[in-house]
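The instructor's notes for this session suggest beginning with a concrete chain rather than abstract definitions. Hand out the sequence below and ask the class to guess, before any prediction is shown, which regions might be ordered.
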Amino acid sequence: MRTTLTAKWLWDGSNLLENPEITIEDGRIASIVGRGPGDARGKLDFPQATLAPAFVDVHIHGAAGHDVMEATPEALQAVGGFLATRGTGSYLATTVTAPLDTTLRALEGLARQIANPELLESGKASAKPVGIHLEGPFLSPKKCGVQPVEHMLAPDIGVFDRLFEAAEGRVRLMTLAPEMPGAVELTRHATGRGVRVSLGHSNATAAETRAAIEAGATSATHTFNAMRALDHREPGILGVVLTTGSVYAELICDGIHTAPELVRLWFSAKGPERGILVTDAMSATGMPDGEYTLGGFQVHVADGRAMARGVLAGSVLTLDRALKNFVEFTGAPIEQALRLLTTNPAAMTGLGNGAGQVVVGGPADLVAVNDEGRLVASIHGGRPAGEA
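After discussion, reveal the predicted structure:
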């Protein structure tokens, strides 16, 4: 099947091209050229929009009534199908702290789905799980958020290796509290096995944070949330994350987890090169208000807030909404904002195969967005999401 896309602009992950024409054959990009303003338009034309790579979400627990820790084809088909309609092309299936045996079983199931993508094929557009994010169990009980303290473990190389092997090496990212005994050693070990370490759920001092960064930590998990507050004499983990130029930093831009003023502060500190927008979405995303689960515990969702035990329990955010919120809160130009949910997460996690960019030979997974960051269309394999 051959089709063409045209738009006002193409942002390919690096550069802006005016009046692009993208030819797609069999779900992959065959050519990218510029055209004259009066030239014939494509089969799919977005004359007032910017085409860009499909979004990459490195921190998501579920959607469409399913949690990724179910680790079944049915669950991941539902999650992926919903995400595709919201512009996401790939994601890291993110675990939560749970009994070790439960986590090991979930990792085994997720590894099977990732290694055998045909298990997830349903004939419709679907975002693909391209790796796993371990959010726990090596977190601080003092900054646990909603994660169950009773199942948290001290950083342990042996336990990590069990998790890594159960996941068949598919772990790409791990959240770790750097102040915990053994955290620096585990950071060094995990980094040596190709896992990116993200610092979070932490009450760490500045010195403890710097030690983990020196050992190889590269990012911060949902900046500001479940994190030691900034102090002018002890800047702590937050002060170091915001002022260390090499460190990436996630942000949940839903207007609930982080106020607009702090979104602007975060962007001023991390800029378009190191900021990453995430959803931290849970199973209630895309569903009516009600009772849902995150990992193994109950969450009540009402008016856009997911709560458990009086604490925020993930979100019901989607990346298209995060982009729109971010542009509204900061006034950033769309080509800068797009980096935060395409190029940056792909670079931080070392994803290849065209994730976070639009290139000849790569997958025809794109979005069309307007200047305000609103999603106009989500295109997977060269077809609008929702088409069979």
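Then share the key points. The CA atoms of residues 125 and 385 lie 5 Å apart. The chain is about 25% helix and 30% strand.
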